[in-house]
Amino acid sequence: MTTPVVQLQSVTREFSGTAAVRDLDLTVERGKFTALLGPSGCGKTTTLRMIAGYLEPTSGAILLDGKDATRLPPERRNIGMVFQSYALFPHLTVEKNVAFGLRMRKLPAAEIRTRVGEVLELVGLAHLAKRKPKQLSGGQQQRVALARAVAVRPSVLLLDEPLSNLDARLRIQMRQELLRVQRETGLTAVLVTHDQEEALELADSMVILDRGRIVQQGPPREVFRAPATRFVADFLGYENFLDLPGKGPVTIRPEHVRVLGPDEDPPADAEVVEGTVASARFRGTDFAVTVTVGDRTVHAVSTDDTLVSGAPVRLCLPAAQAIALPHDDAAPDTTASEPLQQQELHT
Ligand SMILES: Nc1ncnc2c1ncn2[C@@H]1O[C@H](COP(=O)(O)OP(=O)(O)OP(=O)(O)O)[C@@H](O)[C@H]1O
């Protein structure tokens, strides 16, 4: 096995006695794209800044390429960083911005010229080399920042919410761009994001943080399809948290809950509950439907445009899509986790 590029061993970082990151163990494999994902304040940026060397851990160790780097200053770590704010030098041209890190490393002028040319080609900006940052669009500025980080051939490329300043369309385009650059260069990358779609699309490994701790990690499909806790499920858009008779606490995505037609028979392995439509919100191709079942709300997705508030409906909860959750999982909304009563079920 090759040495991991980054290893965090029992890393804790406190601010005024409060831990922003607690006892974190993290391994970043060579050539892989790792995403740190979680809600605001969960410790993503603190973790990234410790890897970069801008913050020291309160305790624990950081290894880069297998060597202890816990107290090494940023300039002695071979790291490339891209920020949300681009952080370009406004008075320097695109090529001089990209050359900056190479000049700091005192590379020969000819080598700098070659590398700047290569990375500008890589991000498709060779034709804008003489422009200043303010003459570029947001997406182009972020490409310059990416080129500048890649030019130094870092051991690890650290990306702190690099796409969140871009509009929705451009963000999706730039995701592909980022992935292409990472794949073409073979660089190891660590991305901080609160956007689950971004992590799902880009990452080989997804690490979910909650209040400074890792709560789940693995390939995105695995984590998405089998959230280990209610927190992870909730964060990944599982809206239904139910206690099914004989099954215990489960979670199920709204798009897996079907509104049955009046004469429709449910599949054999499904639970069926009766309720009343509380709301049906049009979303373009379908409706986000909320249904009151007893004293709780079940979320479903339907293409039926005749559903109106107050209408009685039957919902089908396919057993195969119901993911079991730990019994003692803290419930963010306690009213939703009461067991569904037998009399509400039809078999
Ligand atoms: N310099 C600091 N001084 C005091 N507290 C800090 C400092 N930096 C971070 N924190 C606290 O540490 C916790 C984690 O912050 P961090 O910025 O790592 O979270 P995050 O997951 O990156 O959040 P966001 O997505 O909002 O950027 C927060 O509670 C934050 O207020």
Can you tell me about this structure?
With 347 residues, the chain is of the alpha+beta class. Helices cover 24% and strands 33% of the residues. The strands form four sheets. Strands 6-7-8-3-9-10 form a six-stranded mixed beta sheet, with helices on both faces. Strands 13, 14, 15, 16, 17 and 19 form a six-stranded antiparallel beta sheet that branches. It has a four-stranded antiparallel beta sheet with strand order 2-1-4-5, covered by helices on one side. Helix 3 packs across helix 4. It binds adenosine-5'-triphosphate. Adenosine-5'-triphosphate binds next to helix 1. This is ABC transporter ATP-binding protein. Keywords: ATP-binding, Nucleotide-binding, Transport. It holds the Pfam family TOBE_2. GO terms for molecular function: ATP binding.
Main β-sheet description: 6 strands, mixed
Rg estimate, integer Å: 24 Å
* Bound ions, cofactors and other small molecules, one mention each: adenosine-5'-triphosphate
Strand order of the largest sheet: 6-7-8-3-9-10
The tally of strands reads 19
